[in-house]
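Interim report to the steering committee. The following record documents the input for DUF3149 domain-containing protein (47 residues).
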Amino acid sequence: MNVFFRDFFTDPVLFLSFGFLGIVIGLCLFYVYYFIKKINDAEVPEQ
């Protein structure tokens, strides 16, 4: 396990790949939260 952390911090390709993957997953989670919040706060029109 110690070798993995050493390789992770010394290999820029591996580091940036996980970094960008984390950013993309973070954006996806933000938009899921954003749209669910907008749906819950939406006013229902009366007919």
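The chain has one domain: 2-41. The committee is asked to note this result when reviewing the revised timeline.
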